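Hi support team,

I'm filing this because I wasn't sure whether my run with EPZ finished correctly. The job status page said complete, but I'd like someone to confirm that the output block is well-formed before I use it downstream. Pasting the exact inputs I used:
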Amino acid sequence: MDIFKIKGPVRIKGTVAVNGSKNSSLPIMAAAILAPGKSVLRNVPNLSDITVCARLLRKLGCKVTRVNGDSLSIDSTVIDNPVGEYEIVRQMRASICILGPLLARCRRVKVSMPGGCAIGDRPVDIHLRGLRELGAKITLKNGYIVADAPKGLRGKEIFLGGPFGSTVLGTANVMMAAVLAKGRTVIESAACEPEVADLANCLNKMGAKISGIGSPRLTIEGVKELQPVEHKIIPDRIEAGTFMVAAAITKGELKIENCRLDDMMAVVDKLRGIGVTVEADDGGCFVTRKGPIKTADITTQPYPGFPTDLQAQFMALLALGKGNSVIIEKVFPDRFMHIAELNRMGANLRKEGQAVIVAGVKKLVAAPVMASDLRASAALVLAGLAADGTTVIDRVYHIDRGYEKIETRLNPLGAKIVRESV
Ligand code: EPZ
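And here is everything the job wrote out:
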């Protein structure tokens, strides 16, 4: 098990390039199932979640190989074992996104229920509702979803909204099932995240007929077959936002390349509101902070609202604000594992239901802390950059799921992070 030892305070200065999006790569890797043959995905980050997804695809019968560093070749000619095994799915809930494409291709599939994780329950009821609407017979057996569509799927008008609004992977699953269904499918209350748009654009390159991309209403005209594709994954807006906070929390100056500010309007709005300068800069941005961190009132929402995946990172930043901020988590109400750990570092955070009162403190102090889930762990790294002393973070594997060797990206910018195996 690896730990991080992070010496602070430091100032993050220099230039960093954002990697391809984890949350775009995972469903697009699954989409390769839909088109027998060899697809090539470029700009795929080298992360443990990607490795797990590749293992899952190999178990189905696909050949998955990494080619020249940032590309993945996925040959889905043979799929002779349409089963998403619990042993793999429980490691990564996003594995559920093979369900839709596998059902569309094989018509009878078994995928383990994902189960919960540190950020809360991860129900898939809306995924299953959407697939049933397309004509699949879905039963739950010994912890597995068994989906049957012997005569194939039929297009339908489907409302895919739930108690928390839209669902990202639910939209991905139903869209990937609908592209090979007979007739037209309309998905109302579809997720509008850039990663869902990237998937839809990739499917259209494969021969699908999807319109309304980026809007809450997707229209899909079913086609007979799809072709393998070559596709470049969009940049990771959550990694970009994490780097922005690294510059802001350390009063640094950071040029961030491959960063699509258009995908990050809510984030940039909040950063500017608390006194952080964010300037567009040829295909990326320049982030710096000179004055104090002002207070903010943040509510996480589905895109284009403020992303839940940056809630923890902003909590670390606002912990050093001049005054009280409020953060309300409306997407994953239990996504607060980072509160106790940040308070161990001298933050003053108080949870009131789905809201957290962030009483700004003058400084954070290093402490031994525990990583719990991907983004909470990133928040602890950011806090460690700004804290006085050496912060020790345990269970660093959580961070490696979504950030490619983050210490090798931050140390050249002035961070002092040492990874040790214990
Ligand atoms: C995706 O998860 C992302 N993961 C998450 O990023 C992200 O936090 C989330 O979208 C929200 O933006 C990937 O794309 C791989 P949802 P997903 O379905 O699709 C409820 C990270 O850190 N819901 O949009 O699983 C659900 O419980 C990860 O990179 C149902 O009730 O999230 C949640 O409260 C973490 N029933 C809300 O909807 C369902 O059938 C939004 O979840 C599905 C979801």
